[in-house]
Give the backbone structure.
Amino acid sequence: MDVCNCNICELKDMFFENVSKDEIKYLCSSKVEIPYKKGDFIIEQGSAIDDFMYLKSGLVKLYIHNDDEREQIISFAKPKDFVSILSIFSGNNYTYSVKAVQDSVTCNIKMSEIRHLAETNGKFGLSLLQRMSKVSDKIILESLEVRKRKLNGRVAYILLFFKEHIFNSNEFELPVSRKEIAEYIGMTTENVIRTLTEFRKDKIIKIYGKVIEICNLERLESISKHG
Amino acid sequence: MDVCNCNICELKDMFFENVSKDEIKYLCSSKVEIPYKKGDFIIEQGSAIDDFMYLKSGLVKLYIHNDDEREQIISFAKPKDFVSILSIFSGNNYTYSVKAVQDSVTCNIKMSEIRHLAETNGKFGLSLLQRMSKVSDKIILESLEVRKRKLNGRVAYILLFFKEHIFNSNEFELPVSRKEIAEYIGMTTENVIRTLTEFRKDKIIKIYGKVIEICNLERLESISKHG
DNA sequence: CGCGGCTTTGATGTTCATCAAGTAAAGTGG
DNA sequence: CCACTTTACTTGATGAACATCAAAGCCGCG
């Protein structure tokens, strides 16, 4: 697609099916790619919503910064996911922060242009609605999944989440700290560690620092399901 | 607006600003109003998504039916809220159930027509996106609010929720059972009751069966904030 | 090298779910 | 309309699950 100088942009495939070459050109001419290092802020809670952001590579966390220094992780976004989700069509400022947990690259398009395109091209608007809807759904349903589990079930759940949705392997390097796991599943760091240790003692996983190897997948799945 | 035989339909005001009279006529000609009695199913989890539903009056709960007979309440919808939210643009079947907790009336429009209108009228599509986005936001942020609290904070939170968002009064009849409160805030029925009793003993509220009177609003707000 | 953040383990106490048992209220069928 | 069944509500006792506090080792980074 030489209408766009971005050779690996999946946006086209994903939800621009109904967008003409001219429209893609229009969007792409203004798009900006921004690289981030691990730990960099991508979005700071409270800042103005100017861009529509999409993750090209890496891994980021979406989280809320509470008054009492406690952070709550809402969700992780992986390549091809939207980074701008909550609020972007309904508010002027971000209600959450986004930080890179791995080196990442975002693709940014001005919100005004997305809005304009949605207004003038209904099919595009509808695809956008579908995508946004899917993202919100996933977050809400995942949050209910986490909530109904006890601690060990939650830890098993997030390990399987990384295995299945991020790394596709039984062995992987945890991209997040124990503290961040705790902030995602709503528990304390100490208890996350204790649970991991328990899994190790029960020979369900092996732990080499940040690297986790799942040894007994069935047990882990069973714990995730039934506690 | 005599283009529509429905004299109190707020849809027009809310997100049909950019819709022509002909288009409103088109939508309204096919719309159906359905009354429900308290306890009636409005949507059953798993059923096909055919209609876009909007609550005209009453109060409903959106919830997930888990395998183990445990229900998790996702959210309550009040008049002018959308009843169809999750999945409706991204899936074919409902991932949740909706039940009337008070006598209610919904206004239903065929999804195919909403889709068609969104496709042909970009401004309408964009308003719809805004509304849907706002709903998802609210659910996600509320769920984080609940999650970060301890039991007494959660009970205080839901009492304030009813006071502020549903009844606008310090005295109201709880529209839900203790069990349903428990299913919403993720605790057991017994502990919800115990907490209410505690609030009563501390003279923060008065309880007459289903009727709650908030006597010490500041205390209740303080508990909701700081536990 | 030393500081700060992450990790780990243990001890302790609080919070909460579970079990049990009884009362009250509300729907059901004769 | 009343006996009957079911569902909602309430209280207490118990133990499990979990947070908190404390202390120490580890690791990366300036």
Chain B has a mean pLDDT of 90. The CA atoms of residues 15 and 127 of chain B lie 6 Å apart. Residues 150-151, 187-188, 190-191, 209 of chain B lie near DNA strand C (CB under 10 Å from a C1').
